Amino acid sequence: MTEKSKTPSSSLLFANASAVVTCAGPARGRRGEEMSDVAAVAGVAVVTVGDSFAAVGDLRELRRKYPSAKEIDCGAGVLTPGLVDSHTHAVFGRSRADEQEMRASGLGYMEIAAKGGGIHSSVRDVRERTEDELLALALPRVRRLMSYGTTTVEIKSGYGLATRDELKMLSVIKRLSEALPLRVVATFLGAHEIPLEFRERKNGRSEFLDLLVDEMIPAVAKQGIAKFADVFCEPGVFTVDETRRILTAAKAAGLAAKLHADELEPSGGAELAAEIGASSADHVAAVSAEGIRALAASETVATALPGTMLFLGRTKNAPVRGLIDAGAAVALATDFNPGTSPTPNIPLMMMLGTSVLHMSAAEAMTAVTVNGAAALGLAGVTGQIAPGFSADLSLFEIDDWRELGYWYGDRRCIGSWCRGEPCHSLERGLS
Q1: Closest Cα partner for 151 from 42, 298, 278, 48?
Q2: Distance between CA atoms of 362 and 350, rounded to whole angstroms?
Q3: Between the CA atoms of 311, 316, 318 and 320, what dihedral angle is there, to the nearest 10 degrees?
């Protein structure tokens, strides 16, 4: 990747890409056959002006129309919309590599949690760390995430499970958005688990629910950082009725809704997500036939997280083919977290989407662009290369756009831009 001019300019002209995957179309979640149309075009250039896309078209014509634009030679690489990772837990303390060995010995997710591992392990760790410590740990992790072509990321709290610590995590997420060029969306996940100190009390469960509704949610709304509230709706964690109560209170406080739904067992989480108008129902590995129908009839995006199932060694995955064929909008995300999906690599999720979840390459591309944006309420902002949309785009060193989900595990992103500003370049490495 070379630049013809080093003169600062608010306009950029991306030239000589072998193809531009525009994903141009409706500013909403794409469903059914719509997911197969990524509008890949050969022999065109792209112009950004300020923080928005201005034009896609013939290179010579765009050179004449935008003579002061700084030209970036894409070197026959492929341009795509900046990738959207719509589900991560990127703020945490230490790794949980020890749990991988526990799983190898035969212990399941809930058994590890019962031994004080899982989410509880990260909660203890996060509570002991300062905000500055958490920020120092998160910065290089999110830079690595950026290096794979992600320009928009959602980051959840949820390893605090106490008002002070949840607010601390959200403050770290805000500081990440201020320190890094990518777009960061914050989600409050105080309902990630029932804390151990409440599990030990006679009425601890109801007391923690009251704390969530009466103290945490008002404090989070007042802080003004989180856009969404999320709940882990799963047998053994939060029931459908408890989830409805929490998210109803969150929506009344001005927070939009997301759900961890039907990850391990079918519990009605997907149906609830559709009922309350949640932006997304995530995981859905165990979604029921009723849940599939409910999502297909709603605007809620079904977000599959195949990296989690892979890392946990589970053979049952989200029925993405059935969801798409039923008419649901499907996204893919990393679920980047220390316990069950320690990867920031969203092109790897595209590979799993095609090789494991039976998606086409086009469907996988839509799932990490337009539909990822829709899962964050940003379908009118990012996810496609079209005039008026945010100038978020990524350049990949590949010959064919379908190779983005083919060279699995490899980092092929050689440059990305968010709002028209450099986000990542291979020359800068991860610094």
Answers
A1: 48
A2: 10
A3: 120
Average pLDDT over residues 219-246: 97
Instruction: Indicate the SS3 state at residue 112.
Output: helix
- The domain covering 2-81+384-428 belongs, at the CATH homologous superfamily level, to Urease, subunit C, domain 1 (2.30.40.10)
Rounded to whole angstroms, the Cα distance separating 96 from 100 reads 7
Q: Is the distance from CB of 322 to CB of 343 less than 8 angstroms?
A: no
- How far apart CA 67 and CA 36 sit, in angstroms, is 35
Contacts of 304 (CB under 8 A, 6+ apart): 283, 284, 285, 317, 318, 320, 330, 331, 332, 333, 353, 357, 367
pLDDT tens-digit profile of 90-128?
999 999 998 888 888 888 777 887 777 889 999 999 999
The answer, yes or no, to whether residue 208 has pLDDT greater than 80, is yes
CATH number of this structure's domain 84-375: 3.20.20.140
CA distance 84 to 378: 10
Q: Copy the structure tokens of residue 367.
A: 């799932």
For residue 417, list its beta bridge partners.
393, 422
Residues 334, 88: contact at Cβ < 8 Å? Answer: yes
**17 — alpha (psi -120 to 50), left (phi > 0) or beta?**
beta
Token pair belonging to 398: 């590949």
